[in-house]
Specification:
The protein has 246 residues and is an alpha/beta fold. The protein has 8 helices and 11 strands. The chain has one domain (11-242): Rossmann fold. It has helices at residues 17-22, 43-56, 70-80, 85-93, 104-109, 115-133, 144-150, 153-170; strands spanning 11-12, 27-28, 32-37, 61-65, 97-101, 137-141, 173-179, 199-207, 212-221, 231-236, 239-242. The chain starts with 10 loop residues before the first strand and ends with a strand. 39% of the residues are buried. The structure holds adenosine-5'-diphosphate and magnesium ion (MG). Adenosine-5'-diphosphate is lined by residues 37, 39-45, 80, 235-237.
């Protein structure tokens, strides 16, 4: 276990230096934080990195994958984060990282299941994983899959409301990834349901002629001041690295 003294009381660290600085010491505990961005922005890697960093500090953390199987997810993460792949295996072995898969589409294939029934099962599964692991931090990747499950916007928003109120009851700090249509800031339209969440971290790309830069911005964070700067970050083999935040 590593030094926990640096963590401010009442906060959950992301463990990503520059991001924690932008968050004035981390995310207020029990907040539900959206990590939004276009495809390839690094939502899955960044949120896994948060789970990993918390697990490293001895805090049990859960990663729920709705988009791919746990096996595929872990395989892909380890390919990207080559330098910490062994550590990831160790933490999974010690059950400090628990990766669980929920495949709503497979469940829906048994024709008798309505989306509401499937979703109710997803919530009760999340709850039993949280209870059995003692997790304080959880990631749900991605919430956008629920939109496909419900089809219509109203039912989807009701489901999100149900999800957030259940997560509050569980008392966990949650990061939920949301797929955005646009990868660039000017094309971003934050969907109405974002008001239901305590925080929004927006990931997007800035393009110049010769290269594109990944940039993160904190749009809101209930219960905390935060940086209003847009911070460039890079994806490396040892994790996500925020650049130039002092
Ligand atoms: N080791 C690495 N070094 C640099 N970039 C990487 C590395 N591994 C993955 N990437 C980049 O990360 C992207 C995938 O990130 P991911 O978190 O899956 O995105 P999202 O979940 O937002 O769709 C890849 O498309 C690739 O551009
Ligand atoms: Mg992803």
């Amino acid at each position: 276990m590593e030094d926990q003294a640096k963590v401010e009381p009442g906060r959950v660290i992301t463990g990503i230096d520059g991001l924690d600085k932008m968050l004035y010491g981390g995310v207020p505990a029990t907040n539900q934080v959206v990590v939004s961005g276009g495809p390839g922005a690094g939502k899955t890697l960044l949120s896994f990195n948060i789970v990993y960093n918390n697990a490293k500090q001895g805090i049990p953390s859960v990663f729920i994958t709705l988009d791919e199987t746990p096996q595929n997810l872990v395989r892909n993460i380890k390919k990207s984060f080559k330098e910490i792949a062994k550590d990831i295996d160790d933490l999974i072995e010690k059950k400090l990282i628990v990766v669980e898969g929920e495949n709503p589409s497979t469940r829906l294939q048994s024709k008798s299941d309505s989306p509401e029934y499937t979703f109710g099962n997803i919530i009760s599964d999340i709850e039993s994983i949280v209870q059995s692991s003692g997790a304080r931090v959880i990631v749900i990747d991605s919430v956008t899959l629920l939109k496909l499950l419900f089809g219509d916007e109203f039912a989807y928003r009701k489901a999100i409301l149900l999800l957030t109120s259940n997560l509050h009851r569980m008392g966990v700090t949650t990061f939920l990834t949301v797929e955005m249509q646009s990868s660039e800031r000017k094309g971003l339209r934050f969907p109405a349901e974002f008001f239901l969440f305590d925080g929004v971290i927006s990931l997007y790309q800035e393009e110049s002629e010769e290269k594109r830069t990944l940039v993160a911005e904190i749009i809101k964070m209930r219960g905390s001041n935060h940086s209003w700067l847009a911070a460039p970050y890079e994806i490396t083999e040892s994790g996500i690295n925020f650049i130039g935040i002092e």
